[in-house]
Design a protein that fits this description.
36% of the residues lie in helices and 18% in strands. It contains twelve helices and 17 strands. The protein has a seven-stranded mixed β-sheet, sandwiched between helices. A four-stranded mixed β-sheet has the order 1-2-3-15. The longest helix is centred in the last third of the chain and has 20 residues, at 307-326. The protein is globular, with a radius of gyration of 21 Å. The structure holds pyridoxal-5'-phosphate. Pyridoxal-5'-phosphate binds at residues 50, 106-108, 111, 139-141, 193, 197-198, 226, 228-229, 254. The site of pyridoxal-5'-phosphate (PLP) has 15 residues, from helix 4.
């Protein structure tokens, strides 16, 4: 391991737009589930760059593969045959049971692709103003269309007029979707996260997903599942919807697919696979050889190293440890999530725990104001799970025991 560069963290960065609230440390390098800052301080990573670093940092199989790819070919454009796109697409189809893939570069781009598929699907059926069912507390990205689909007024504030064509319902309320079905002949698709991430780790119930699948079949709608955060093994299956035994018509992926190299995917089943044709969609970087190699290696290493099993087992260890420590503690509301997508809801805003955890050498996130979110790399080991808990649980208990600051 190289010695960390002795560069002081510079916050604020005067030439960088201030769109993010940043902690003051700058990270220098990482290995496995560990990160070092530019002062040499070490952190345990229970965030994985927000569910991105599937294989942790500097993975010994991923690094040489990417180095070899960089030395061979990074980018070509989509003017030419794309054997690496075919290889990753075939693997994604094998593990999802779906049929065809369009590659893009991020989560919001995958979701934009889905919105285009749904609208074109509607137009092809003669529906001139197609509408898509979306959800309260959903997060689908920050482009104008995806923030319009997002169910969070803060994300939308200042960016009106919003894109039309969305009908919003609460999660896990079948009657609400049935009511939309009765009253709105323009609906063409239902679009949801299997586990809402930014919204607070709110899972769609298994029964709910099955009912929505049934409704989509009855009505001829597309079921479009945003697995940008919960997919790619995070819940202990390749995709979170597989716990419900349903198949979507469209599944959106990004984040963990490239282990840190930007890549997104619109994965389509038979009803959606041929909706977009030549000239309907495209992106310069989408599916470039570096991103494809990152995706192929990520999925291969996940299989070789049994990371689905690890995510399920380490997730269970987290759950057991968290409940052992927090059950019955005043201020602890609920533990939610599946596998290594974990939300600990408190009864009060707890954003300050982010900085306190970092000070104590732990990377976490807080979402929806009151929910501590853990999204560690899928390679996390049992001793590392115990270390996360050993740092985090006392912090949470101290925080809840302190008088509430209003
Ligand atoms: C479920 C979900 N969809 C979409 C996005 C947007 O992805 P990106 O930030 O890559 O555009 C996110 C990002 O947090 C997400 O969690």
């Amino acid at each position: 391991m190289n010695a960390p560069e002795k560069v002081p963290a510079t916050t604020p960065e005067p030439h960088v737009m201030t769109t993010y609230g940043r902690l003051p440390m700058a990270l220098s390098h990482g290995r496995g589930c560990w990160l070092w800052d530019t002062d040499g301080k070490k952190y345990l990573d229970a965030l994985a760059g927000i569910a991105v670093n599937t294989l942790g940092h500097a993975h010994p199989k991923l690094v040489p593969a990417l180095q070899e790819q960089v030395g061979k070919l990074i980018h070509t454009s989509n003017y030419y045959a794309a054997p690496m796109q075919e290889k990753l697409a075939a693997k994604l189809c094998e593990i999802s049971g779906l049929n065809k893939v369009f590659f893009c570069n991020s989560g919001l781009e995958a979701n934009e692709g889905a919105i285009k598929v749904a609208r074109k699907f509607g137009h092809d059926k003669g529906i001139e103003r197609p509408e898509i069912v979306v959800y309260e507390k959903a997060f689908h990205g920050r482009s104008i269309a995806t923030l319009s689909a997002t169910g969070n007024a803060k994300v939308q504030a200042g960016f009106g007029p919003l894109v039309e064509g969305f009908v919003r319902v609460p999660l896990n309320d079948v009657a609400a979707v049935e009511q939309v079905a009765q009253s709105n002949p323009n609906v063409v698709a239902v679009f949801l996260e299997v586990i809402q991430g930014e919204g607070g780790i709110n899972p769609a119930q298994i029964d709910y997903l099955q009912q929505v699948r049934r409704l989509c079949d009855e009505r001829g709608w597309l079921l479009m599942l945003d697995e940008v955060q919960c997919g790619i093994g995070r819940t202990g299956k390749w995709f979170a919807h597989q716990w419900a035994g349903v198949k979507p018509d469209v599944m959106l992926l990004a984040k963990g697919l490239g282990s840190g190299v930007p890549v997104g995917a619109v994965v389509c089943g038979p009803r959606a696979a041929d909706v977009l044709g030549p000239g309907n969609h495209g992106t310069t970087f989408g599916g470039n050889p570096l991103a494809m190699r990152a995706g192929i290696e990520t999925l291969t290493i996940m299989e070789e190293d049994k990371l689905l099993e690890n995510a399920a087992a380490m997730g269970a260890a987290f759950r057991e440890g968290i409940l052992r420590e927090l059950q019955g503690v005043p201020g602890f509301v609920e533990l939610r999530g599946q596998g290594l997508m974990i939300g600990i809801e408190l009864d009060r805003p707890c954003g300050e725990l982010l900085g306190r955890a970092a000070q104590a050498g732990l990377m976490i996130s807080v979402t929806a104001e009151r929910v501590i979110r853990l999204l560690p790399p899928l390679i996390i080991s049992r001793p590392e799970v115990d270390q996360v808990l050993a740092i985090l649980m006392p912090l949470v208990k101290d925080f809840l025991a302190a008088p509430r600051s209003q």
